[in-house]
Amino acid sequence: MFFLPAIAGERNRISKNAYNDNGETVHYQEVRRLEQIVINGGTPLQGSVRIHGAKNAVLPILAATVLADGVHTVKNCPRLSDVSITEEILKSLGAKTVRREDALVVDATGETGSFIPEKLMRKLRSSVVFMGAVLAKTGRVKISAPGGCELGPRPIDLHLKALSLLGAEIYEEHGYLELYAKRLTGCHIHLDFPSVGATENVMLAGVLAEGETVITNAAREPEICDLANFLNACGARVSGAGTSSIRIEGVRTLHPASYTVMPDRIAATTYLCAAAATGGEVTVTHMEPEHISAVLSVLSDCGCDITCGKNTVHLKAPEKLSACGAIRTMPYPGFPTDAQSLMLATLCVARGTGLITETIFESRFKPVPELSRMGAKISVSDRVAVIRGVDALWGAEVCAEDLRGGAALVIAGLCARGKTVIHNPCFLDRGYEALEENLAALGADIKRYR
Ligand code: EPZ
Q: Same structural domain for residues 211 and 289?
């Protein structure tokens, strides 16, 4: 199985680089497409879909398992490639993992390693939160810069500044970071930006620190609350998660826990946008409606009839969507950046002109050239996309280049007339469990060819 990053615009060449399962670069001059998703669009989605556990909650929670000796049970753990890579990282640190139905059992008993191989670090962004956890547990950690979807530069300066304030000595050479601290000392940390990852790293480092750590301007995402709930289930003392000010009272040791991960709010958003774009009627279950209030407000403004239950959202799309007012991505509880590409695709077939400003990442309009091949009328200037709605999109051959951009292409393919072929569907596997199967169960004509 190869990992082939696409270069949009080179139809018969996937890429001059490819990576094999060991994460090594394999140069290609001409590569036949290895995997593709084929969609024959135009069917309004109908039915209900159950939401899996949240990728962006389970990844830091799995990193947190190294903090406590013993056997953790992480329930509602989604089957995603990012989770598999995180399991590899855990094993490289000496832990054992085994899948038990919807749970992942992690045995973190015994000596915890302090070095994470570069080939694993490069494979996903959330590997960076192992830094705080491993440093807190072992007093040292050696990692390379993390990987993840290419959304523009993704520095970790906020992470490193915070860990340095907690007392870590930080050395950088040959592309590796080495951090040392006999025992971290709690302090007040103000984040210049409410970074999700930096907030998580400080929480993971602070739970075993000497004294109290207070994070101000902390990220308020629901995934932060889930991590805090898991840590407290392990005996930590974290309060204020979900607000801008989080307080962590350091303890000497933690114990393993059994915990159920929150539902994936971006997966829920994906199915709702697909229902809206195809003019369908779908109920999303096993989710938390209040986690996506900003998204539901926009979909309602676009003309969708939305009914929320305790753990469900029912959406009935209008005959034709209407472009809503300007959308700006913001830290939670604002409109989530991870929903930006999904909304971009949905607005392509809305009446009127939509406007989306991406304030979180520098380069998160990657699906635009691919959507344009499908007939979308989108113009991008810096961080602003203007979407002129068209009657209909047409099917085309397109390439996914990141997780949510790939999901946007799926949404476009579902509402397009004719056949769409999506290359590099491996990006989708990072964050969606059984995407094609779930969409097919909602009536879509979608299939993956290997
Ligand atoms: C998390 O990424 C999520 N990933 C992202 O989801 C999500 O888009 C993002 O939070 C924002 O909500 C995971 O949880 C695994 P940030 P993260 O630190 O932690 C800048 C998906 O599709 N920044 O909040 O990397 C950064 O460059 C993924 O599921 C610094 O400048 O996001 C970005 O512009 C994509 N210095 C902004 O802050 C730092 O030290 C937000 O980054 C850290 C971040």
A: no
